[in-house]
Every structure is written in C-alpha cells, then in structure tokens.
Amino acid sequence: MLFVFIIVSIIPLYLFTVILLDNYKDKAISNKFNQMQNQIIMLSNQMLPTGYLTLASVPEIDAEVSRIAEIFQGRIVVVNNNLNIVEDTYGLYDSNKYLISKDVIQCFNGNSSRAHDKENNYLILTHPITHTTEDQKVIVGAIVMNSSTRDIQSILTSLEQRAIIFSLALAIFIVIFAIYFSSKLTKPLTKIVSSIDRLTEGYMEEEVSIKGYYEIEKISDSFNKMINRMQKIENTRQEFVSNVSHELKTPITSIKVLADSLLMQEDTPVELYREFLLDITDEIERENKIINDLLSLVKLNRSSGDMNITSVNINELLELILKRLRPIAQKQNIEVVFESFRAVIAEVDEVKLSLAISNLIENAIKYNKPDGWVRVSLNADHRYFFIKVSDSGIGIPEDAQDLIFERFFRVDKARSRESGGTGLGLAITRNVVQMHRGAIRVYSKEGEGTTFNVRIPLNYIA
Ligand code: ADP
C-alpha cells in the first residue's frame, strides 16, 4: 500500500516538475531570441541612413552596438554585402576580414537563423539587414549576435533547487502520510485476521469491535454475526448431544432397575418375571425407536443431494398413509377424514414426504381426545400444493408453539412417552419440508385443537 502511495504521488510530482522546468527553459530561450531580433532590427534601422555599412566611421553606432552586446553579455558582428566585417564588439576582426559562414550567406537569401550552443551556453542569431525602398527590399548586410544563456541557466538552477526542496518536503510528507494511512487501513484487517485465527483454533467466545472506515465496520459486523451464528450452532450441537445421551440412557436405566429388582429378590414368582420382562421389552423397543428416529434425522441433515425426486401422486400417497393409520385412530374412536380438492402430482421424495406427513397425522391422533376427529386436506395452485392436518385434540400452549419443531422438545413428556413419542417427529417433518423448499406453520388453541399447514412447490427446486 505504501508502495502504491509512493508510485501514484511521487512519480507524477517528479514528472510534473521536470516538464514545467523544461517548458520554462524553452519559453525563456525563445523570448531571448525575440529580444535579440528586436535589437538587431533597431540597430539595422539606425545603421542604414548613416552609411555605416559602407565602412564610414560612425562612433555613435559603434557605441550603441557595444552597449547592446554588453547588455546581452555577448558579441555582435556586423557584416556588409561584400561580407566585409564592419564591426566586431570583441575587436578580434576588423574591416580587412570577411565573415563567410553558412548562416551569413543564408541571410542574403532573406533567411535569419537561430542556434543554441548548449555546451558553451549561448545563443546565436544571424539576421539580415534589409533596406526597404518604395518598390523593393534589398539585403545590404547581416548581423551575427551571440548572447549568453547564463542568466536563464541561473534562474533555472535556482528554480530546480526550489523544486527539489519542495519535492523532498512533499515526498517526506507523502511517505509519513502513506505510512500512517496504510497502517490505519491495514490495522483493523490484521485484527480481524487474528480473530479469525483464534476462531480457527477453537476460541468461539470472542467478538471483535473495530472502529474504522465504513467498509471495515461492516466486515467486523458481519464477522460478529458469523460468530454469533457459529456460537448458536455450537450450543444447539452440544444441547443435542446431551439430549441424545439423556434420551438414550433413560430406557437403559429403566431396564437396569427392572433387571436389578428381579435379581435382588429370591424366589421371584414366574408371573413377576414375565411382567418385568414385558416392561424390559417395551423399553428396548423405545430405545430402538429413538435410535431409528435419530438415524432418520441425521440422514435428513445431510446435503439435499440425497433427495430421490420422482413424480408422485400426492392423493394416492395420502390415502396410503391414512389407510395405515386409521386402525390406530379407531382404537381411540377417532374419526379420520380426507378431503381432496384436486388431483395433485408433484416432484417429491416419496419416502421422506411420507415420513413427514405420517408424523403430523400420528401426532394428530396421539394428542387427541377420545371420540375426536382428524381432518386431512389436499389442495394446490399453479405453484404449490398444500396439505392441512387438523385435529380436535388437546392443542399446544402458545409459548410452546415455536419450540415444538426443536429436537426432543415435548410439551408433556409423560404423555409423549406413553404414546411412544421421542420428541423427534416434528424436527424430522420440518427438515423434510425444508428440503423440498417448502414451509410449515402451526395454528393451535389449547384444549380446542391444532392445525398444521404444509406448503411444498409442485416442481422440485434443487
Ligand atoms: P413426539 O414424539 O413427542 O410426538 P414431536 O416432535 O412429534 O414429538 O412433537 C413434539 C411435541 O409437540 C409433542 O410432544 C407434543 O407435545 C406437541 N404436539 C405435536 N403435535 C401435536 C398436536 N397435533 N396436538 C397437540 N400437541 C402436539
């Protein structure tokens, strides 16, 4: 992050400075050339009427040429149309000498030329002296003017120094800012990572409280939600394990008590043996039922990949279940009625759905009153089918209605046990419904009866 900060701030800053200084240099040089050219034109205008170029001695013009050469810290050489040197401010040449150079000759074609000698730091401007009469322009000489660029160079050097100082100060500021900001940015993440590590090691009790920018706070919120959910899962798991142990132990404890009491008595009558052994068989059956229900539940908790989906005639399925359960209902003189509003064919796992609906109807019979009734109805719309199981039974207290789907929850343990209940039936039913992407609801009034509504999609949604 620090690295990215440096790249996106210092490199553009450096480029900006270099381009700015380069631009200044170009502008300053072109300015200087323009000034030189203006001076040459002014000089030419002064020279023309005086015959200066025909080697006449005009001390005022000599003085003016020298003055200008001095101002520009350079040298001015004036040449006439014979290429005779009229004036050289350095005094190296006199009028016996000629100046024949490419630039001077080009001047007589009307072209001025500019050159920059970077090595020696000066500019050379060669410009024609033009005599304009009414109808024509005649080139009567040329001026070669040198000017030092030291002044530009010294301004540039001072600008460069300032830019370096400014850039360094800015770079230091950026680095400090980057270190501060990147550590501020990454610190909460490090905290979350260490919390995740602790979670992986098995410490689930911790929540993280991280203050930072919005996204980080959201991560920490989501993380805490995840921990809460994991804690809940862990608690239910532990509760489930302890419930299972307890439920499995109860019949075994009873068996042990029954067997011990038989063993402790001497001369026990055969009838008592028989009676106790019948009780022992009951307990074994109960143990067996709990184990079977547990196995069903464990199987259902696996992935939905275990679903065996086929097209099933739900009317026939319900008829079959009711046929099996009616004799049990008849023992308590309970009337079982089936109402079908339409023929329903749906994509379901037949075995699982059958188990789920059987549990509901068995409960409606088990928790009923003598001479009561159980009503099962089937209906459908274009997306779902609805199964409703109502009874005229004892009902479920309001505060227990949310809990009945929990594993091993029973309103009245004794009654459930008496009727062979394990407290797992509704948990199995809810799992099956959820595996079919359906929903289950309970409506009940204590002492009046209970209704379970099940809604399942006609077409299986994987
Ligand atoms: P169980 O094996 O005890 O029947 P379930 O999971 O099937 O376990 O049901 C949980 C509890 O919900 C039952 O013990 C009972 O108290 C209550 N219950 C379920 N269905 C009904 C019903 N139709 N009428 C009254 N109470 C019911």
Q: Which features would summarize this protein structure in a list?
A:
462 residues, alpha+beta, Beta-Lactamase, Helix Hairpins, Heat Shock Protein 90, 3 domains, 5-stranded antiparallel β-sheet, 5-stranded mixed β-sheet, 10 helices, 18% strand, binds adenosine-5'-diphosphate
Describe the structure.
By secondary structure, the chain is of the alpha+beta class. The chain folds into three domains: 2-155, 2-Layer Sandwich (Beta-Lactamase); 214-300, Helix Hairpins (Orthogonal Bundle), CATH 1.10.287; 306-457, Histidine kinase-like ATPase, C-terminal domain (Heat Shock Protein 90, 2-Layer Sandwich), CATH 3.30.565.10. Helices cover 55% and strands 18% of the residues. The protein contains ten helices and twelve strands. The protein has helices spanning 2-47, 59-71, 102-107, 150-201, 214-264, 270-301, 314-331, 350-366, 413-418, 425-435, and strands at 76-80, 85-88, 113-117, 122-132, 137-148, 309-313, 335-340, 345-349, 373-380, 384-391, 439-445, 449-457. The strands form three sheets. It has a five-stranded antiparallel sheet with strand order 2-1-5-4-3. A five-stranded mixed sheet has the order 7-9-10-12-11, with helices on one face. Strands 6-8 form a two-stranded antiparallel ribbon. Helix 4 packs parallel to helix 5, helix 6 packs parallel to helix 10 (425-435) and helix 7 (314-331) runs parallel beside helix 8 (350-366). The longest helix is centred in the middle third of the chain and has 52 residues, at 150-201. The mean pLDDT is 89. The site of adenosine-5'-diphosphate (ADP) has 23 residues, from helix 8 and helix 10.
